[in-house]
Amino acid sequence: MRKSVLIVCALKIAILGECTNLGSKPHIVFMVADDLGWNDFAIHGSNQIPTPNIDALAYNGAILHNFYTQQSCTPSRAALLTGNYPIRTGLQGIPLDSGENRSLPIDMPTMGERFQELGYKTHMVGKWHLGAACKEVTPTKRGFDTHFGYWNGYVGYFDYKISTPINDTHNFTGFDLHNEFKPEWGLIGQYATELFTKKSLEVIDKHDTDKPLFLMINHLAGHAGHDGVELGVPNVTEANKKYGYIKTPERRLLADIVNHLDRSVGEVITKMSEKKMLDNSIIIFFSDNGAQTTGKYQNFASGWPFRGLKFTLLEGGVRGTGIIYSPLLEKRRYVNRHLIHITDWLPTLYHIAGGDTKALGKIDGKNQWNTISRNDTTKRTDILLNIDEVNGYSGMLGYGGQYKLLNGSYNDGIYNGYYGDHGREPENPDYNIQGILNSPTNIAIQTIEQKPLTPAQIKKLRAEVDMKKYKPQGTYPTFTCDEYCLFDLHADPCETTNLIGDEEKQDIVKNLKKKLLAYNQQLVPQTNKPVDVNSNPALFNNTWFPWLKCKLHNNIWLGSVHDIKIYS
């Protein structure tokens, strides 16, 4: 089956530029981690946290070395699902609070809606974080046939509760785990990563393989859980023993969170193989933004050797671990160094699924299929990193990703230093290449690959993406970029040296300022709102639940308060 599907699809791509036969539409699976950094995955050279399944996926497919996300949760997910920069949606600032009446604009179709148009069965498991004030803005009303998971930014790993402050002394606290609109109280105590994996496997197992599948698995791992501080693992004693070589106890827990995430990847790939779906599939793995080593929602993740954390536009905040595997890729087992942005996934996948990208209208994302599949030169030369007009910072990436212009910093540069373990201590275990070759992911993939993955290929690819040679030597200032910063990322990816005063770079500065100004003139103002007192979970059996009745007016959902009803 695999050979015939690939041959037919390859011929269609060669002749028509797309694969249009319904039977050949690839199954598409996203696996999205939360708040994990560049150095939390072993492919980048650290031996501290083994990730054999994620590594196997990367080494068999394409490692996207210059893949960029947004700086935090809501902006990234808005960009992913719409193919547009967050400045188009008003969601470019701080992530949504529980109980806040904000959401994606109704006139901006989501990826789920687009793939439903192409005949896909669409499912989401895990995090949404794009609005839940009324039912009309939740996943099953925005393009997903089913949703099992949570609507807010995070939950406890076992109790699935989240609190949000309503003033200096009081919080609203509620349960947020739903099967569509049904609260799943009976699942309290089950570990989130394992539960979301189980539900994802059920989706795949029940899927009619005559139809194309679109599955988005948005993990809680490794965001801080309950009260924004929990690092939830099934067994703390075992985690401390297994990762005893890690000096910081909290990072041991983060390592175990990543371990269970890695297992999940292996289980999903294995299930796809068992269902005979892997031979016509596209599997994508990435983290939604950078690490949060310290500060609010501290999870002890590591973006080493990059500068910055989540919330910043420095490399540690927006340069992501991007991996894609598909037998449809013409070139595999390589490092892709072209500039790719999270908005590009929508047009790229829409194209390979047989859609005409012209139907997407004017969006910021670009069709990167040939860039990824063939390693062809990308048409993307720049990326708007973000404009946060409320918090007063913005950034532009240009010249094929070589130069970055920043104007201002998040919270006066609070996270603009260098953070996180480098993971190259002598007490760490050796890199287990045989463990990668024996991983469930690699075993499943080898059933459809003609040539086996070799230790030599693994060593070569890992060396290509290890950034240790760029690690900062000595102490560097914390830039606030109030008068702009310019970095040459090709020579200085760790952003140690501000080139804004370099006379030879003034044309570059002028050009990037001009582009940033043009985007600023297109910006939709942020729609941040205070927590609505009517969202109080106490009114809904201590469950977060859509608290407004909404009707559409000028493409905006206008809400009125629900009749008070107890939901169970």
Written account of the structure:
The chain is an alpha/beta fold. The chain has a single domain (2-470), classed as 3-Layer(aba) Sandwich (Alkaline Phosphatase, subunit A), CATH 3.40.720. The chain contains 14 helices and 19 strands. Strands 1, 2, 3, 4, 7, 8, 9, 10, 11, 12 and 13 form an 11-stranded mixed sheet that branches. It has a 4-stranded antiparallel sheet with strand order 14-15-16-17, covered by helices on one side. A two-stranded antiparallel ribbon has the order 5-6. A hairpin with a 4-residue loop joins strand 15 (393-398) and strand 16. Helix 2 (52-60) runs parallel beside helix 12 (440-446) and helix 7 (249-274) packs parallel to helix 12. The model is unreliable at 1-23 and 562-568 (pLDDT under 50).
